[in-house]
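User: Predict structure, ligand magnesium ion.
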Amino acid sequence: PAAPSHDKALGLLLGGALGDGLGAPFEGREVVEETQLAAWEAAATPLVHTDDTALALVLAAHVAERRDEHGLDRDALAPEFAVAWRAEPWRGYGSGTPHVFGLIGAGVPWRSAARATFGGQGSYGNGAAMRVAPVALVATSLHHAAELGRQSAEVTHAHEHGQNGAACQAAAAYLALRSDRRHRLDAVRFLQDLTRVVRSRLWHEKFDRIAELIRHEAGPAHAARALGNDVSALGSVPLALLAFLTRCDDASMAIRYAVLGGGDTDTIASMAGALAGARNGARAFPEAWTARLEAAEPLGRLADQVTGPLAAR
Ligand code: 8NA
Ligand code: MG
Ligand code: MG
Ligand code: MG
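Assistant: Predicted complex:
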């Protein structure tokens, strides 16, 4: 398939950063007041990004560099993540990830490093899902997107749910990129497609619950209770997916819905924002928001790189 349009690629990248920056001040709060969020949306201060965007930038650059191969090189990717963490450890990383990055930076193979956390189980955190959306920009099919998502996760998240979360978000980003905003998005069909590439009963139960919440037009607080809003993959990727699916034609509202769900707000809104931007394009977001993005320039260059003519080698 052809590369996604520049507007959609840029939308995916900027949407992720917008969700991160708009959600960050509320991270960890169970209740987010609409008036507080509205004030932050209307502010003029820069949207400083956190770990979510810092690592998405690394992954986007990695796949853009290998655009003609449509793939990943995990032995290269693992140290690239570790270098980004080492340069800016203050970006708000979880507890397990810095440990893994430290080991990788010290030369431990990523497979062992990713198993060294949480008693050998590895992390089921949402840290692989939060950074993954850019892989959809080079994926050639839905299955390929899920596979790239899973591979990118393996270097830090050995637990199956950490990997399922990344596969799910990568596949959702692929579907959002390929969706045409002139046509209604069929949420049931979208979830059925995800069921084919995320093969886990626990995830399928979440997909069923998402469909039910959409049918009942559930608000964010109710949805957060039904799906979870924590730092685990299984407890956050579904809420991001719902925020997108239930507000799929209004990119700003998808981010707003995700932040109002509370909990891991920067990460959930970042994932929802990437999906919303992938469907609706960068122009769907308010200028006033994108102008505040700390990472606007590098993200713009990456969108150029991934959609422009292939550089001669
Ligand atoms: P991670 O691997 O540290 O996982 C996140 C958390 O999940 C851990 O700190 C543990 O509490 C828990 N966890 C994960 N796997 C297991 C396991 N096998 N057994 C028991 N507990 C487990 O980091 P990550 O990169 O996956 O997480 C990403 C999140 O951390 C994002 O929200 C990101 O923004 C960051 N973050 C979160 C918070 C927060 O508490 N809301 C604050 C700052 C940063
Ligand atoms: Mg974060
Ligand atoms: Mg909660
Ligand atoms: Mg977070």
